[in-house]
Structure formats: structure tokens, C-alpha cells
Write a structure and sequence with these properties.
By secondary structure, this protein is an alpha/beta fold. It has 21 helices and five strands. The chain has a five-stranded parallel β-sheet with strand order 3-2-1-4-5, with helices on both faces. It binds flavin-adenine dinucleotide.
């Protein structure tokens, strides 16, 4: 009797999961396992928001596997040692796992290859629409570093067909299941009050609702902060509750949306080739970042006196999620207007984001800071101009900054222009920086290098 182990990592779904599908079609018995990895749990990336989402994912996956005759086997400890022990115990012929890109995931795969007594089958096509390494620069080595060139090739790259969820999964006899952990068991601490629910079922429901209502209009409204009309699928993509291949196969997905998913693949292939970029700059500009703990704290708390920045930072605190345009604005404000190190911002985002993802977080921060793949690396924004363009009526700001709710229309973006008496009654700070001066300081610093 052939036995396969499916090591779930961040492919927490049954539909269109090549890891599970191939295991079920290659072995008579299959052992689906998730290891609460001690190295991840004790590291800096284990945070309450993602822990709560992960606990939902595991509960949902367990229920779906049980409905198909199996159930999720839970283990805790060293992921490689636990997997090897389980594989020995069930006399597995192979362990199946998704190919992944971070330095940690790459080391995990190397250790699995070295320490397993059976075959390791790595499915490179489980987490990305176009897996890293498929599109290479003309010389053949390394990674693509210009998004436009990558995207031209990404668009025409053949994609596999989505796979069905298995109907039945047969476990070998007498495998101890273990308990699905609670959120607090994974990481204690306060969770954002409006965190989305995790899991494949919630992800599929979100996808279906978005396809029905907003997907067709994505290209026109995705940058409108108040419309909130993007898919909000990022945490489901991060944890693999949804497959990008399956989403892109849906008919009403637009070109503009596909382009955003291509950014995800782009960053994955950069990190896969350069795992050190979580800390190291891709293109160092000789920055001597300022040291200003009070300004950084004001940014974190959404008390900078710049309404659109504060709205973004408060949305992040309340939801563990942030609109892409708001991410660009708050990250620009931190790295260019305040000229503080992007690593501080990336760490704060990683603390709170439910979709916090090593590749997308650090490489987007580097892009904004001009140390990454942006060819216009010294571009600066007028923050109020951005606010007026992407939140023309001021509704996004009023939604997230209650102190400013009484100010109608776009005037909410510039409370410093209100008469002094009205301003004094607001309980809202004066801007911590003059944006034009801050941007000019950044440009001066960059030109000196
Ligand atoms: C400073 C900064 C930090 C970021 N950190 C993360 C992060 O940790 N995790 C993360 O998933 N995204 C990150 N992003 C990218 C982007 O902001 C989010 O993916 C997006 O806002 C999620 O919302 P959505 O699902 O509604 O996106 P949609 O607009 O509906 O896009 C669909 C999908 O495309 C992908 N996508 C969209 N924009 C990007 C992008 N710029 N880079 C990579 N993938 C993208 C996401 O998977 C997203 O779910 C960051 C962007 C910036 C500027």
C-alpha cells in the first residue's frame, strides 16, 4: 500500500492544491499534516493578527478534510524532525510540499531533502500563478528586476488548469490526530477589532461576492480609497486559502487585476533569488536615515497631523489590512517625507498586517523607499495632492479619523487651513512636518550621494 504525507505550509486549501491533488492521485493513503513550527512560533514573524487568521484556516481545513474522510494531523516542534518522524511512522513513500521562496522556506526544503528517509516531492506551482524561475532574464541566471519586462512575459506564460478538490481522502490506520490550536495557543495578544475571518471557506465566499459585485469595475476604481473596491483577497492568497491560478481562470477577472497578481509573482521570484533582501537593500543609495523616534511613534499611532496618513495607519490598526494606495502613501511619508529607514516601517507592517508576507512586504517597502526595483527611485509625492486625487470627497479620511468627521468635503485633507478657533476645538495634531520641506530634505540627501 502506497502512503503519501502532505505537509501543508501556506497552501491551506483543498481546491486547486497541486500538493494535495498529486498526493491523492499517487498514493492509496494520504496523511495531511500541519506542523506548528517552533522556529516560526518563537520568531519575530508570529503575530496575533496572523495567528488568529491561521487558527481559522486550520479549523476550516480540518473540517473540510474530515468531510472527505480524513482530518488534519497536527504536530508541533521542529517541522523537519516532526515530518520525518511521521513519515517513518506511517512508512511513507513520499512527502509532498509546496515550493516556497523565503530563505527560511528554502532551508526547510534543503533539510527535508537531507533528513527524510523517503522521497520529497516539491510542487513549485502551488503558491504562484507563474512560479519563480519560470521567467528568467535573457542571460538565464538570476531574477527579473524590471516589472514591466517581467509582466510582458508573465501575460503570455501558459498557466495550468485549476485542479478539483479531492472527493475522498483515506488516512492510514491509527494516526494520532493532535488538536487544532486556538489563536491564543499560536500567539497570545490583542487582535485587530475588524480582522477578516480566515480559511478556505471564508476565502471562497469573499471571492464569490467580489466576482459578483466589484470585479468587473476593478480597473476603474481600485485606486479609490473610499470605494474600498479591491478584492481584499490578499490574506487568503498569503495563507494559500485561495489559489492564484484558480482566481485568474475566472472570467470576470480584468487585466488590471491580473497585473496586480503579477506583482505578487514578480516579488516572489526576486526574493527566491535574493532571500537576503528582507534586510539588505537591492540598490543601496547611501542613505543616512534620520533617527526620530517621536515622529516614528506619531506615524505608528496615526497622529502625524496629515489626515490621509493617519487614516491609513488607523485602518491598519483596526483591520490588520490596508488599501494598496494607502500603503503607498504612508510608506512614502515615512521613508521620503520623514526620511526614516524603510526597515522600521516594514517591521511595523509585519507586526499588524494579516496578509504580512516576507516577499511582498519587504520588496514593496524597498520599492517605495527607492532602494528596490522602482526605476524612478527618487520620486516624491505631494501627500495632500495624493489625498485629493484618491479620496476626492474625503470620505476615507472621515471613516477612519473620527476627530475630523465634522469637516465636510475635501477640506478634511487640510485641517490646518481651518480658522484657528475651529482648529483648536478639533483634538487633532498639527502636522509633524511640512511635507514640501520633508520631500526637499530627502531629495537633497539623495543628490549628495
Ligand atoms: C509598503 C507596502 C507593503 C505591502 N505589504 C504587503 C504584504 O505584506 N502582503 C501582501 O500581500 N501585499 C502587500 N502589499 C501589496 C498590496 O498593497 C496588497 O497586496 C493589497 O493592498 C491587498 O489588497 P487586495 O487583496 O484588495 O488587492 P487587489 O488590488 O485586489 O489585488 C489582488 C492581489 O494582487 C496582489 N497584489 C496587489 N498589489 C500588489 C503589490 N503591490 N505587490 C504584490 N502583490 C500585490 C495581492 O495578492 C492582492 O491580493 C504591500 C504594498 C506596499 C506599498
Amino acid at each position: 500500500m502506497s502512503v503519501g504525507v502532505v505537509l501543508f505550509t501556506r497552501d491551506l486549501r483543498l481546491h486547486d492544491n497541486p500538493v494535495l491533488w498529486h498526493a491523492v492521485h499517487s498514493h492509496e493513503r494520504v496523511v495531511p499534516v500541519f506542523v506548528l513550527d517552533a522556529a516560526i512560533l518563537s520568531g519575530g514573524f508570529n503575530r496575533p493578527n496572523r495567528a488568529a487568521f491561521l487558527a481559522d484556516c486550520l479549523r476550516d481545513l480540518n473540517a473540510s478534510l474530515r468531510a472527505r474522510g480524513a482530518g488534519l494531523i497536527i504536530r508541533g516542534g521542529d517541522v523537519v524532525a516532526e515530518t520525518a518522524k511521521l513519515a517513518r511512522r506511517v512508512r511513507a513513500d513520499a512527502v509532498h510540499v509546496a515550493g516556497d521562496v523565503s530563505g527560511y522556506a528554502q532551508r526547510r526544503e534543503q533539510r527535508l531533502t537531507a533528513e527524510l528517509e523517503c522521497e520529497l516531492v516539491v510542487h513549485e506551482d502551488a503558491l504562484f500563478a507563474v512560479p519563480p524561475g519560470r521567467i528568467r532574464p535573457s542571460g538565464g541566471a538570476g531574477h527579473m528586476s524590471v516589472f514591466a519586462a517581467y509582466y510582458r512575459r508573465w501575460r503570455t506564460e501558459p498557466r495550468r488548469d485549476p485542479l478539483l478538490a479531492p472527493r475522498h481522502i483515506a488516512l492510514p490506520d491509527a494516526v494520532a490526530r493532535g488538536r487544532v490550536p486556538s489563536a491564543r495557543g499560536i500567539c497570545p495578544g490583542p487582535v485587530a477589532p475588524r480582522l477578516p475571518q480566515g480559511g478556505e471557506s471564508a476565502g471562497r465566499a469573499r471571492l464569490a461576492a467580489w466576482l459578483r459585485t466589484a470585479a468587473r469595475g476593478y480597473d476603474e476604481v481600485h485606486d479609490d480609497l473610499a470605494a474600498d473596491a479591491t478584492s481584499r483577497l490578499s490574506p487568503y492568497l498569503h495563507f494559500g486559502c485561495l489559489s492564484p491560478v484558480e482566481i485568474l481562470a475566472r472570467q470576470c477577472v480584468t487585466e488590471g487585476f491580473a497585473r496586480q497578481v503579477a506583482w505578487r509573482d514578480f516579488h516572489a521570484q526576486v526574493l527566491s533569488a535574493r532571500p537576503d533582501l528582507t534586510a539588505v537593500e537591492l540598490r543601496p543609495r547611501g542613505d543616512r536615515w534620520r533617527h526620530a523616534p517621536d515622529e516614528f511613534a506619531a506615524w505608528q499611532q496615526g497622529r502625524t497631523g496629515l489626515p490621509v496618513v493617519d487614516a491609513g495607519m488607523r485602518q491598519l490598526a483596526a483591520e490588520g489590512w490596508l488599501h494598496n494606495r494607502a500603503r503607498l502613501i504612508v510608506a512614502h511619508f515615512l521613508t521620503k517625507t520623514l526620511y526614516l529607514d524603510w526597515r522600521l516601517g516594514a517591521a511595523h507592517f509585519a507586526d499588524l498586517l494579516v496578509d504580512g508576507d516576507v516577499a511582498n512586504n519587504t520588496l514593496n517597502w524597498q520599492w517605495v523607499a527607492g532602494t528596490g526595483t522602482d526605476s524612478r527611485f527618487n520620486r516624491t509625492y505631494n501627500i495632500t495632492g495624493q489625498a485629493r486625487r484618491y479620496d476626492p470627497d474625503g470620505n476615507y479620511v472621515r471613516r477612519h479619523v473620527p476627530e475630523l468627521r465634522g469637516i465636510p468635503g475635501p477640506a478634511v485633507h487640510e485641517p490646518w487651513r481651518l480658522p484657528a478657533e475651529q482648529r483648536a476645538a478639533l483634538d487633532y495634531p498639527e502636522p509633524i512636518v511640512d511635507v514640501a520641506e520633508g520631500n526637499a530634505r530627502f531629495l537633497r540627501a539623495r543628490r549628495k550621494r
